[in-house]
Amino acid sequence: MAPPGRPRRRPEGERPPFAWIGGALCLDFVNTVTWAEPGVLLNERLVRGADVVEWGHAAGLLVAHGAPGAERACEAPPCNRLLRDARALRGVLHAVLEDAAHGRPPTPSTVAAFDAWVRWGFRRLRFAPPDGGGARRASPGALPAAPPTPAGSWTWTVPVIGAGRSPGPELGAAVLAPVIRSAIDLLGGSELARLRGCANPRCGWLFVDRSRKHNRRWCDMRECGNRAKARRYYRRRRAAGGDVKLASASPRRIWVAV
Asked: What is the signed CA dihedral for 201, 205, 210, 216, rounded to 10 degrees?
């Protein structure tokens, strides 16, 4: 019998679902792939430009943008560029946030790459009064809500995509600029001390530990946590020479790319 947690092959055309366990927009964006080991990425969720748009909708970033058909139009070159930009940003964010989670100083190249994305993001964000001036607030809707702001407060906003317009640079700004702002808020805020990496060395997902005792170890106890328990049980039973009967692991996080 194969050890528990052995990956099954992902059916052709089937993409693993998005997960929302990070506690910050930037972390759930980083967690759109499994960081199995340096240079090895599994369970890719951003396969096409349309997947980046779908993630933006699911995160609540595109709800007010008047672009419900953006996924269908996302085979155009601008969305191919969006996919490249999204993956590049994700790699830089994972590097800087993983270093922070483990208390390591980032390398100069990581700092330079992150700074370049910060400047890219702030060229696209606007600081606008309540009427928005044709923009919308750059904070996630499906994730931990931003603190309420007093009436009349100015907020960070991103451009609105007009109905009927082809997705282009505005789409990239609408999805990626709020992710960058989320990373800035996390790295410069009080919750940085609660930033953690999953204890599964072949996961690489990151999360903010808001547990009561601040002792969360797993991205999701139902996934990595239960598989770790199953592996320990398997090893004990094998060492004792006993039969091993285990329930199938959940397929949510153990696809492998083919």
From this structure: -20
